[in-house]
Amino acid sequence: MTGDGGRAIAEVVAELRAREPIFHHPELGATRADFEAMTAPDYWEVGASGRRYDREFIWTTLERRYAEEAPDVWETDDFECRQLGPDTYLLTYQLRQDARLSRRATVWRWTGREWQALYHQGTLVSA
Known about the structure:
By secondary structure, the protein is α+β, with helices and mostly antiparallel strands. The protein has one domain: Nuclear Transport Factor 2, Chain: A (Roll), CATH 3.10.450. The protein is built from 3 helices and 6 strands. The protein has helices at 9-17, 32-38, 55-68, and strands spanning 39-46, 52-54, 75-85, 88-97, 100-110, 115-124. Strands 2-1-6-5-4-3 form a 6-stranded mixed beta sheet. The chain is globular.
């Protein structure tokens, strides 16, 4: 099976896995300009709390997080990917942050030059 541009889906998955959890990779950028490049203009997300967040709220939160340089300890596993369209993919995975376990889903689009997130959602896993 091939993904966008005829690439194997495994290559697409590897690229997207390296970007998740979304916004937790300072090596991919930690400035407002970087966050803007990582997300589509109409990007939004639903947090594990069930609240909806727009780009502006997320950018403000991320700028504060990166300025604090606090430890960001997490583990991911159970990745799955589904191609939704010619350049669009749904990546799902499990995220563990200390005792907090959540399922995550991000819709990604390949722009021809870079990956952009269109939507993200976190759902807490109950005990």
